[in-house]
Amino acid sequence: MYGGGGAIGGEIARVFAAQGARVHLVGRTAPALEAVAADIGSLGREPAETKVLDVLDERAVNAYAAQVGKLDICVNAVALEGGAQGMPLIEMSADTVVQPIADAVRTAFNIAKAAAVHMTNGVIIMLSTPMARVPVATTGTFGSASAALETMTRQLAAELGPRGTRVVCLRLTGIPETATRLGSQTERVWRDAAARLGMSFEQVVEAAGAGSPLGEPLTVNRVAELAAFVASDHARALTGTVLNASGGAVPD
C-alpha cells in the first residue's frame, strides 16, 4: 500500500486488513504509517509492516518489492502533486508544467514495475481524478497527470494480462475527508481554490458533493470498499479500465 499513511491509502489498508490481507504500508512519514498500522493491529489482524520510502527512487522501490517478495495486490495511493495552482498554464515555465506530470508517471511506473515482477494473477490499482476527462482552468497539471496514469493503466494491463495480472484505475472526485486533514496536500489545494473563488474553505468542503447527481460527497470508506471489490475475484473481468467513482459528476 503506497501512500499508506494518507486518508485514502490508510482506509484502503484498514479495509483490506479487515478482510484478511497481510498489509505492507509504504509512505513518506513514519508517524502516519505507524498510526494506520496501530489501527490495523486493533482489529486483531496480523500486524502491518511499515516502510518510509521515496517512490521516485526506482532502485529503492525495486529493492523493497524484492524484500517483501510475492505480492497479490498493489495499490498506488500516492497523492498527485498538481504544481502551481491558480494561474494559466501559459504563465508557467515548462519545468513547472512538466515536472509534476513526470513525477506522477515515474511514481506510478516505479510502483507498478516493482510489483509486477513479483506477481502472478495479481492486481495493481491506481488512482486518478475527473480532470483526466474534464479539464478545469487554472488547476495546474492535475488533469494531465491523471490522464497519463489512466493511459499507463491501459498499457500495463495489455502487457501484464498474459501473466494473469490485472491493472485498474479508480477515478475519484473530491473527498472532504482528505481536505480536512491538517497540513495535507489536498487541504492546501482546496484552500487555494477557495481563495480563487472568493469562498471560505468550509464552503468549498460543503460543496464537494454538489456537482454530482447523488448530491453527496465521496468518502474514503466507499473508495476502500470499491478497491476491495476490484482486488477480489468478483472483479476478475476488469482490467485495462478506469472505474468512474465520481458519483456521476463526470459522466461516461
Blueprint (SSEs and pairs):
Elements: H1 7-18, E1 24-27, H2 30-42, E2 49-52, H3 58-68, E3 73-76, H4 94-116, E4 123-128, H5 142-160, E5 166-172, H6 176-179, H7 185-197, H8 201-206, H9 220-231, E6 241-245
Parallel strand pairs: 1-2, 3-4, 4-5, 5-6
Helix pairs in contact: 1-2, 1-9, 3-4, 4-5
Q: What profile does the largest beta sheet have?
A: 4 strands, parallel
Put simply, the count of helices is: 9
- The average pLDDT score comes to 91
What letter string, H or E per element, gives the SSE order? HEHEHEHEHEHHHHE
Q: Would you write up a description of this structure?
A:
It is a single chain. The protein has 252 residues and is of the alpha/beta class. It has helices spanning 7-18, 30-42, 58-68, 94-116, 142-160, 176-179, 185-197, 201-206, 220-231; strands spanning 24-27, 49-52, 73-76, 123-128, 166-172, 241-245. Strand 1 (24-27), helix 2 (30-42) and strand 2 (49-52) form a beta-alpha-beta unit. The longest helix has 23 residues, at 94-116. The model has no long low-confidence stretch (mean pLDDT 91).
Structure described in brief:
The protein has 252 residues and is of the alpha/beta class.
Which key phrases capture this entry?
alpha/beta, four-stranded parallel β-sheet, two-stranded parallel sheet, 45% helix
